[in-house]
Design brief:
CATH architecture of the largest domain: 2-Layer Sandwich
Structural class: alpha+beta
CATH class of the largest domain: Alpha Beta
Catalytic activity: N(6)-biotinyl-L-lysyl-[protein] + hydrogencarbonate + ATP = N(6)-carboxybiotinyl-L-lysyl-[protein] + ADP + phosphate + H(+)
CATH topology of the largest domain: D-amino Acid Aminotransferase, Chain A, domain 1
Radius of gyration: 21 Å
Shape: globular
Pfam families: Biotin_carb_C (PF02785), Biotin_carb_N (PF00289), CPSase_L_D2 (PF02786)
Largest sheet: 8 strands, antiparallel
Helix content: 25-40%
Number of domains: 3
Protein name: Biotin carboxylase
Keywords: ATP-binding, Biotin, Fatty acid biosynthesis, Fatty acid metabolism, Ligase, Lipid biosynthesis, Lipid metabolism, Magnesium, Metal-binding, Nucleotide-binding
Number of helices: 14
Number of strands: 22
InterPro entries: ACC_Biotin_Carboxylase (IPR051602), Acetyl_CoA_COase_biotin_COase (IPR004549), ATP-grasp (IPR011761), BC-like_N (IPR005481), Biotin_carboxylation_dom (IPR011764), Biotin_COase_C (IPR005482), CPAse_ATP-bd (IPR005479), PreATP-grasp_dom_sf (IPR016185)
Mean pLDDT: 95
């Protein structure tokens, strides 16, 4: 087992990893930018190293600074968390070159699943259902028009290096193809320095359902049930839950088998997530693989009573997994609380938290790095807290979440708490009638 792990991240995920490391008897090293010097992950780690200025490129994305911090503290492993360098194959490679274990999959696995076209080809070869689409990248507007006609509209154009909704355009009418093609390429080039785009059939009334998987160094893979992440805004998840209200035992078995096939196709090692789009007829299609721990991993932990960070560390240390497939025993819902103004088009709201009271009580978990007096910096993701409500049934979980949100007080900055409170009272949400388009018609009162 590792003696000391450097956490190449910040905020609540860094704190989350520190907690599990403490329970496992592993020393921790926090890294921080000058903007994060007062953050809780810095306070609770055994050691802390400043790695640069506030901008991510000068700190959390600065590989030489991170490696120097690992060297001077004698860390024998690096946990990347999520975001930043978590799915950077070159960073994983450099860790290996320096004799430091990257807690995650191998660089080759990250590369195979990081490029969406390569991932799609891998899934087709493995027999995993994929959305019909172009073979390879689009080379011209003319080619895009021909393929769109063959598949039938609507179609969606996507950046091959994409993420977070960047470089995506839905086409409903043939006259929109040229403009969508140009806009998608331009946006992809600006966001990812790669203007490669491909086309897929647009799935109508889709659900975003993902399967949590774990694979060890010995070829064994298991799934740990599903999460429904359909409540989104601009392709960014807002609410996640397990089990999905749309799921059936038969569908869970099929999607679980497909996820295991997908991970086994690349001999996947570590925890990760296979993301699917599920249409209204419960046909499911591979969307992408996240080769890292996810923001919403706590939802799965609560419904199967399982520490995913601990499992990730154990796998990296060469410990075999049980190989058991899991079914949710409880119902859990997570609300992401962001420092944004939901009454003003979710504009970011950094600043000082003057008053803070976090909810508690039976069935409530709060993962957060904020405290009264903490200054939310403007340089990073706006998420400041995750609230998870757990109960025997979905209705009880929603009621618990309503109660928890009513107790959650954050003053000094605007947050998305009012949005989540209204969502929990929404009749369609409570009935489980929603798709990824749900928030488009959602008006905050």
């Amino acid at each position: 087992m590792f003696k000391k792990i450097l956490i190449a991240n910040r905020g609540e995920i860094a704190l989350r990893i520190i907690r599990t490391c403490k329970e496992m008897g592993i020393k921790t090293v926090a890294v921080y930018s000058t903007a994060d010097k007062d953050s809780l992950h810095v306070r609770f780690a055994d050691e802390a190293v400043c790695i640069g200025k506030p901008q991510s490129s000068d700190s959390y994305l600065n590989i030489p600074h991170l490696m120097a911090a690992a060297e001077i503290t004698n860390a024998d492993a690096i946990h990347p968390g999520y975001g930043f360098l978590a799915e950077n194959a070159r960073f994983a490679e450099i860790c290996g070159e320096h004799g430091i274990k990257f807690i995650g999959p191998t660089p080759e696995m990250i590369r195979k699943m990081g490029d969406k076209m390569t991932a799609k080809e891998t899934m087709i070869a493995a027999g995993v259902p994929v959305i019909p689409g172009s073979e390879g990248l689009l080379e011209s507007v003319e080619q895009a028009k021909i393929i769109a006609k063959e598949m039938g509209l609507p179609v969606i154009m996507k950046a091959t290096a994409g993420g977070g909704g960047k470089g995506m355009r839905v086409v409903w009418d043939e006259s929109e193809i040229e403009n969508a093609y140009t806009m998608a390429k331009t946006e992809a080039k600006a966001a990812f320095s790669n203007d490669g785009i491909y086309m897929e059939k647009f799935v109508e009334e889709p659900r975003h359902i993902e399967i949590q998987i774990a694979g060890d160094q010995y070829g064994k893979v298991c799934h740990l049930s599903e999460r429904d992440c359909s409540i989104q805004r601009r392709h960014q998840k807002l609410v996640e839950e397990s089990p999905s209200p749309f799921m059936t035992p038969e569908l869970r078995e099929k999607m679980g088998e497909a996820a295991i096939k997908a991970a086994s196709a690349i001999n996947y090692e570590s925890v990760g997530t296979i993301e699917f789009l599920v249409d209204k007829h419960r046909n499911f299609y591979f969307m992408e693989m996240n080769t890292r721990i996810q923001v919403e991993h706590g939802v799965t932990e609560e419904v199967i009573n399982f520490d995913l960070i601990k499992e990730q560390i154990k796998i990296a240390a060469g410990i075999p997994i049980s190989g058991k497939n899991y079914t949710p025993q409880m119902h859990a819902i997570e609300c992401r609380i962001n420092a944004e103004d939901p009454y003003n088009d979710f504009r970011p709201s950094p600043g000082k938290i003057t008053v803070l009271h976090t909810p508690g009580g039976h069935g409530v978990r709060v993962d957060s790095h904020i405290y009264a007096g903490y200054v939310i910096p403007p340089y990073y993701d706006s998420m400041v807290s995750k609230v998870i409500a757990v109960a025997q049934t979905r209705e009880e979980a929603i009621n618990t979440m309503e109660r928890a949100l009513s107790e959650f007080v954050i003053e000094g900055v605007k947050t998305t708490i009012p949005f989540h409170q209204q969502l929990m009272q929404d009749e369609n949400f409570r009935k489980g009638n929603f798709t990824t388009k749900f928030t488009e018609g959602f008006k905050l009162q």
